[in-house]
Amino acid sequence: MFLFPSQREEEKGISNPRVLSDMGLAIRKHTCLAVSNNTSSNNQSFETYLKSQNQRNIRQIVSHAQRYHSVLETGDVSPLINLQSGAMRRHAMESLTALSKYLGRYDRWQEVRKHYQLRWTSGDESVKSLERFFNPDLTLGNIYDLIGRMIAKTPIQIANIIRFACLTGLRPGEVIESVKLINYQESLCTYYNQDRQTLEHFRYPEIFLRRTKKAYISFVTPEILQLVRFEPNARMLTYNIIRKRLNQVGLSMQLSLCRKLFASHLRQSAGIQPEVVDLLQGRVSTSILTRHYLVPDASLGRDVLTAVEKLREKITI
């Protein structure tokens, strides 16, 4: 039975353990003082806790916590080990991490996880990467065609978000969060550096500097920025809204191809060094970023902006 405490101790500071890969936020630890038998109110209390920590994917976390909470109670990890999907196992572990911190059982959860060598990766990333590399349907020309169809068959607001995803190389979730920040005047002032023509994602670490997925900077011109500047009363689009709209016109949600197109164009068509592409896609350690890239050479931004502008011309329909 899925039970939560009805009361919690005062906050005892922020912990710095490995945190949820989808959220990247340190979660304040609480100790369980009492347990209530009201499951619905407990669920709501857990949801409230997750919201207070600015967590995303709350419904998914609660759903997995309900399904696998017995792991925390018994120490039996067979429900996790028996999962065929590595990605599903990772999501379940992330949910248990949040639940263990809420219940004050994080240390116990870490002991169990380490004892049974439960790992955060699905274990088949290299195989999937190899399959994608040799997939004949994912040539650069085919990717242009697929993205072109997504742009042509969707309303202008969604089409421009797809273009923006191609021109920044951000992950789908990061694209949506970036567009939100751009459309809030208060955040735009600190988010967009006009002198360097960069979106400085690192200024919002709770959104962009997650445990395994990071985004530091994106070079964009004011014209690119204007693509996703919408009317004040316009409805802010979400990932699900875009996905449903694409499904309505017979297309699947493939925003991840925009990220692939960005990297392929910069490397193959523009000759941008792989280290720079890695930087722009968040594949560089924070120490290297601080030492070398937070004040980038002027030629770096100029070369990337030139390449991005050429890509913008190609995907303009």
Give an overview of the whole structure.
- The structure is a single chain.
- The chain is mostly helical.
- It has two domains: 5-115, no CATH class; 135-314, Intergrase catalytic core (hpI Integrase, Chain A), CATH 1.10.443.
- It is built from 18 helices and five strands.
- The chain has helices at residues 39-52, 58-68, 70-74, 78-81, 86-103, 106-115, 125-133, 140-152, 156-168, 172-182, 185-191, 205-208, 222-227, 239-248, 256-269, 274-280, 286-293, 298-314; strands spanning 5-8, 32-35, 192-193, 198-200, 217-219.
- The strands form two sheets. The protein has a three-stranded antiparallel sheet with strand order 3-4-5.
- Helix 8 (140-152) runs antiparallel to helix 9 (156-168) and helix 9 crosses helix 10 (172-182).
- It starts with a strand and ends with a helix.
- Mean pLDDT is 80; it is low at 1-39.
| Residue-averaged pLDDT | 80
Secondary structure tally, helices: 18
Give me the CATH superfamily of the largest domain: Intergrase catalytic core
Biggest sheet descriptor: 3 strands, antiparallel
Shape: globular
Query: How many distinct domains?
Result: 2
Query: How far is it from the N-terminal to the C-terminal residue, by CA?
Result: 55 Å
**Rg over CA atoms:** 22 Å
CATH architecture verdict of the largest domain: Orthogonal Bundle
Number of strands: 5
Question: Within the CATH hierarchy, at the fold level, what is the topology of the largest domain?
Answer: hpI Integrase, Chain A
SSE pattern, N- to C-terminal: EEHHHHHHHHHHHEEHEHHHHHH
Q: How large a portion of the residues is in β-strands, by DSSP E?
A: 5-15%
The SS-based structural class is mainly alpha
CATH top level class name of the largest domain: Mainly Alpha
Portion of residues within helices: 55-70%
In order across it, which strands form the biggest sheet?
3-4-5
> Low-confidence stretches at least 5 residues in length (pLDDT < 50)?
1-39
